Amino acid sequence: MTDTAPRPTLEAVAARAGVSRATASRVVNGGDGVREPLVERVRRAVDELGYVPNQAARSLVTRRHDAVAVVIAEPETRVFADPFFALQLRGISKELTAHDNQLVLLLTEGRDDHARVGRYLAGGHVDGALVFSLHLDDPLPGLIRRAGVPTVFGGRPDWSDGEDGDRDPAARDTDAADRGEGAGGGGGVMYVDSDNRDGARTAVRHLVGLGRTRVAHITGPLDQTSAADRLDGFRDVRVDADPRLVEESDFTPAGGERAMRELLDRRPDLNAVFAANDLSAAGALRVLRERGLRVPQDVAVIGFDDMLPVADQTDPPLTTVRQDIEEMGRLMARLLLSRLDHRATPAHGADTGTPAGVILPTTLIRRASA
Amino acid sequence: MTDTAPRPTLEAVAARAGVSRATASRVVNGGDGVREPLVERVRRAVDELGYVPNQAARSLVTRRHDAVAVVIAEPETRVFADPFFALQLRGISKELTAHDNQLVLLLTEGRDDHARVGRYLAGGHVDGALVFSLHLDDPLPGLIRRAGVPTVFGGRPDWSDGEDGDRDPAARDTDAADRGEGAGGGGGVMYVDSDNRDGARTAVRHLVGLGRTRVAHITGPLDQTSAADRLDGFRDVRVDADPRLVEESDFTPAGGERAMRELLDRRPDLNAVFAANDLSAAGALRVLRERGLRVPQDVAVIGFDDMLPVADQTDPPLTTVRQDIEEMGRLMARLLLSRLDHRATPAHGADTGTPAGVILPTTLIRRASA
DNA sequence: CACCCACCCGAGAGCGCCCTCACCTCGGCA
DNA sequence: TGCCGAGGTGAGGGCGCTCTCGGGTGGGTG
């Protein structure tokens, strides 16, 4: 009925508690340096009036927003069909919530959107950003570094200038750390990633350990660092694998089916497959069954992700490389928040102590398919 | 290097353009009532300084935030495994972006989270909310109505007090409209939904039109209104169907497989299946093939959603009921924004003109499975 | 007993913006 | 020519909050 009863202000709380605005403010913000009886009075006034601080007024003076942007570049619809983001988002959301930060979601879909996001971030509406930029040629990371907003990337971003290759991961990490410095308002550009390369090595070694000598690999889209890293891991173990044992795919079940058919046509004698994710592994499994090949007796199969409604429901249940996706999200948020806190304090010297990249380990989950 | 060069203020822009703050402000906000040469000067000053308005300062006086909360209640992980939300979110994001509004994402996961969301919304941090609350017994809709925030629901919310049944949809809509009034700070509680019931009817009629007399139905989780409505639609057409032809499931492929097996065991003679969504239809197809039944010759199958990487990739491609999910998201946002604009203007009288619920039509997409 | 220090608390100055209101400038009309 | 009104512009107040700074109070010490 009544149109939006005017929300009580700090002034009102102070009046009701019989103290000054300053004291009321102190109590609302933790109550340090205020004697107990007053704290109590103010607290009661807050409850009675249903006082909620006006965030806009607060931000105006503190220059903090307690809000973090999550930027998801979405070149194709596929990005979202994947539960991957959803899980990371969940982890992020939980962590931000736990620290009373809001999550501002920015979905981008094209060149002009990038400009918009850049403007938004530079506009200082949020304290920091969590960015998912999967594709190698994405201009977003560059834009964001220039915007000078504290940022944590999800997955190793690639801001090399085109070249690439077989350098070992250590070199890459160092590289990232180097470049991290010098932009972003004094502090490294950070990222969180799974140890894709090592996970892939573990998977392939497992297959080899099973006595499989003709191991095929269904890759993900190779313009994504995660897929590229997994391929690198595969190659680390199968140094001189027949190139016909590698088929590029796209992380989807349908893509996995297609790739599996292709591989079987080229090398009908293959006896193991390492798929770059569970979804494509599921597709591969279907094709194998369709061709009358038994898993794991004839062909052993390993996936990647341990995406749960998928990996444990395939037939046979999938052996796979587990990465804790939700935890990655949490970690991204945690990293960013701690960075923001550090930046708030004067910081006695450049904090190069923070690692530029955090790589989470993976573990092999053994089920029936290998 | 330099720690966050102080952002230019409107004052600075005004000074550079040689006008007053007021004039600069007018130009920034559209430039009405300012003569051309001055507009030009101010515009240039804005560019040169890279001025971006301080949203916090603006909100402080306008009491608008140009931000909308999107609340997704997530009782189980599954909610997100479904690309459904992702698509709606995309639609919402596009529409909000087009109107320069921000999207604040709130994921909830339990009782205490509800309280938090309620507090947040009541706290006036956002101008409105878009809420997805799927489950019948969810306290969220009630909480939100009490918070007095303009809200649009995704999917028909159920705030009946437990009872329910076979009233026709018209009655339901009226009901919703009634209750919509009286809370939410003057204005109806609104929602956007697909015409699930009619879509189901169309699908089942199509099967009947194909001469199928023993039509089974794999439902979704019946505590969600969409699933319940589709079941109602099925029953509208198959008024006295054998109850053994209906099996409750959960919108997942695995659930679809399970339900299909169950149905075939109970009624091996069935010759058509209407699945409540494409994912469960895909599962059903696999079971049918496994049992050596041909689709559509032996059993015709229809899904629901027309979820694209799924429906057109099954074998055979799925005939299904299409709903434009992304458009639903767009519409939700559009509805909310227009409501917010209306509320801004004094509004000469209660605007009961706005429909409480918007029901989008569905269309049958014929592919090979029926 | 005087002094100092540590601790609390209140007054007041803004943060950057929008908006009201008064003023000023013209052009049109009597 | 004088007056009036419409349309532009500028000065200033205030949105709700935090934070600095000065005053006041109490207890410990020389």
From TrEMBL, chains A, B:
User: DNA-binding among the record's keywords?
Assistant: yes
Domain HTH lacI-type: start-end pairs: 8-62
Q: Which UniProt keywords apply?
A: DNA-binding, Transcription, Transcription regulation
The record's Gene3D superfamilies line, in alphabetical order, gives:
3.40.50.2300, lambda repressor-like DNA-binding domains
**Chain segments carrying region Disordered:** 154-194
Entries under InterPro entries matching the protein: HTH_LacI, LacI/GalR-like_sensor, Lambda_DNA-bd_dom_sf, Peripla_BP_I
- Indicate yes or no for the key word Zinc: no
| Pfam families from the UniProt entry | LacI, Peripla_BP_3
GO MF annotation: an example? DNA binding
Q: Which GO terms describe its biological process?
A: regulation of DNA-templated transcription
Biased composition range(s): Basic and acidic residues: 167-181
Protein's name in the database:
LacI family DNA-binding transcriptional regulator
What organism is this sequence from?
Streptomyces doudnae
Upper taxonomic classification of the species? Answer: Bacteria, Bacillati, Actinomycetota, Actinomycetes, Kitasatosporales
